Amino acid sequence: MLIGVPMYNFSIPASLKAWIDRLTFPGAYVDPDTGSSLLRDTRVVVVTARGGGYGPGTPREAYDFLRFTHAETTRSGDVPALAAFQEMASRSLAAARTAMTDLATSAHYR
Ligand SMILES: Cc1cc2nc3c(=O)[nH]c(=O)nc-3n(C[C@H](O)[C@H](O)[C@H](O)COP(=O)(O)O)c2cc1C
Question: What ligand 1 atom has the least distance to the C-alpha of 53?
C-alpha cells in the first residue's frame, strides 16, 4: 500500500492520524474466526511532500526533531503468548539504550 502525504503544520494530516488510529484499534482488523490479523501481509510505504526543507544543512534542520528508537517485545515478561521472546526483548532494549546513548552524545542533540 502506497500513501502520499503532505506535511501539515509540522505533522501529518488529521485524516491520516484518524486512519492510523482506526487501523490499529485493538481487535478492529482481526479475523473473528482465526484471531489472526487481516492486515498481516500488508506493508505500507508513506511518501511525504513538504513545502519547506528540513534536511541536513538547511536552516530548519533542527525542526526535524523526531527520531524513532524502538524497544520491542516489552510485554514478553507478562504476556504468556510472548514468553518465547524474552531474549529478543533484552536484546532490543539493549540496542535501544545504545541508540539513545549515541543520540544523547551526538553533537546534533547537545
Ligand atoms: C494547511 C497546510 C499546512 C502546511 N504545513 C506545512 C508545514 O508545516 N511545513 C511544510 O514544510 N509544508 C507545509 N505545507 C505545505 C505542504 O506540505 C506542501 O504544499 C506539500 O507539497 C503538499 O502537497 P500539495 O502542495 O501537492 O498539496 C502546508 C500546507 C497546507 C495546505
Answer: 11
Q: What distance in Å separates the CA atoms of residue 23 and residue 3, rounded to the nearest whole number?
A: 14
Whether 50 lines ligand 1, by a CB cut-off of 6 Å, is yes
For ligand 1, whether the C-beta of 89 sits within 6 Å is no
Which sequence spans correspond to the domains of the chain? 1-64, 67-110
Q: How far is CA 73 from the centre of its chain?
A: 14
pLDDT reported for residue 106:
77
Separation between Cα atoms, residue 46 and residue 105, nearest integer Å: 30
Among 3, 8, 65, say which to mutate for ligand 1: greatest number of ligand atoms within 8 Å of CB: 8
| Ligand 1 contacts CB of residue 9 (under 6 A) | yes
Q: What is the pLDDT of residues 24-63, one digit of tens each?
A: 888 899 999 999 999 999 988 899 999 988 888 888 888 8
Does pTM surpass 0.90? no
